[in-house]
Specification:
Elements (H helix, E strand, L loop, with lengths): L2 E5 L5 E4 L18 E4 L4 H12 L34 E6 L8 E6 L9 H13 L5 E5 L3 H13 L2 E7 L4 H9 L3 E5 L3 H15 L2 E2 L7 H6 L1 H9 L7 E5 L4 H15 L8 E7 L4 H8 L31 H10 L3 E5 L1 H15 L5 H16 L7 E6 L25 H5 L11
Parallel strand pairs: 5-13, 6-7, 6-9, 7-8, 10-11, 10-13, 11-12
Antiparallel strand pairs: 1-2, 1-3, 4-5
Helix pairs in contact: 2-3, 3-4, 7-8, 8-10, 11-12
Length: about 425
Amino acid sequence: MTWRATCVECGATRAWSHPQAAGAEQCSCPAGGNLALMPPLGPAARSALLAAIADGDATHWRYAPLLPAPRPTAGGRAGIRLPVGWTPLIDCGVQGASGGGVRLLVKDETRNPSGSLKDRASDVVVAAARARGVTAFVAASTGNAAASLACIGAAAGVAITILVPATVPPAKLAQIRAYGATVRRVAGSYDDAWELAAQVARHTGLHNRSTGINPVTREGKKTCALEIAEQMGWQAPDWVVVPTGDGNILSAIWKGFCELRTLGLIGTLPRLVAAQAAASDAIARAHWGAGGAGLDPAIAVDAKSADTLADSISVSWPRDRAAALAALRDSRGLAVTVTEAEIVAGVRALASRFGLFVEPSSAAAFAAFERVARSGHFEAGQRVVCLATGTGLKDLRAVAADTDEAALVAAGDWRAVADALPLATGTGG
């Protein structure tokens, strides 16, 4: 059996065997919809998947039978294969009354090679394209996908061109440049960079890895859901809270769980929560506009100028909006917006309570978790997974003020330090 490609707008389906050289693949329908790829999911696929998992590969390639690319071997300029995926699912315990009495688990994607979940997409995109002889790529990004593609590209020995908005956080820009990619800042927003990347790909033949237009990105990201289910003993959590900008991670998480249920490896599906910044809430507004229940994925999503500290989810025009909205509808999910103050508080709460230092977009998911818990939608005893999609080292603005609050003491003045210790601190002996 072969893979199939289905338009998320009109539903037209066709056979699909490999990515186009240009990376960009959309339906020829008037809406120009994104494509959703579907692997064969019969008994043979189930057997192949379980055999691959049994091989013990501690990366996301343990799910190779469900991916549209051959498992890469060590090679390329660096002579290595980076260990993408199989990140920890951290049990943060049962939360108190303010947390709805649920068990909170955090999928820590900061452990990926470039520090974000986007490595899953970049790794599969590069592997699939290299199998067809592609050696040069372009992508638009708010920063994480760019650093990811630059990182994976450096190991694979391929040329990477990156377009980022002029407002990209300095740490992310430095990381991208360190990997050796060609970087250009675009005088405009992420959406402007996305459009420019599409133009560059059309005119130069570079393989476009950008979100939405390249359907293979969703295939890489879905492995996060496959891991969650396996790490939970082949069970789905009750809820998954996903930082949401373009909507591609949201649709990928849903796709991964749905494929596992079709294969008979899990019996239930989770409900999704799309966590958006209030200043970048296009998907939430569209979901609410449909009553938060049913939605025709072809419904227009109103663009809104986005300006949020959570730059990874700062998107005016979500590029995977139809698939994301369908995932919310089909999962009976929720769309939640959080304020900038809640995002900053989320960064500090995850770090101080659980030892997890995440970037603002990941903190938006935790802030959304707290909002949903307060609203009573969670039931005590349920298991809720929050995705920590990127490390806090990529964007220090949320905690920058804390560096000014560290008191200065004189060298040798141990009493000044002792006076600041908590009363319960022992003196030793």
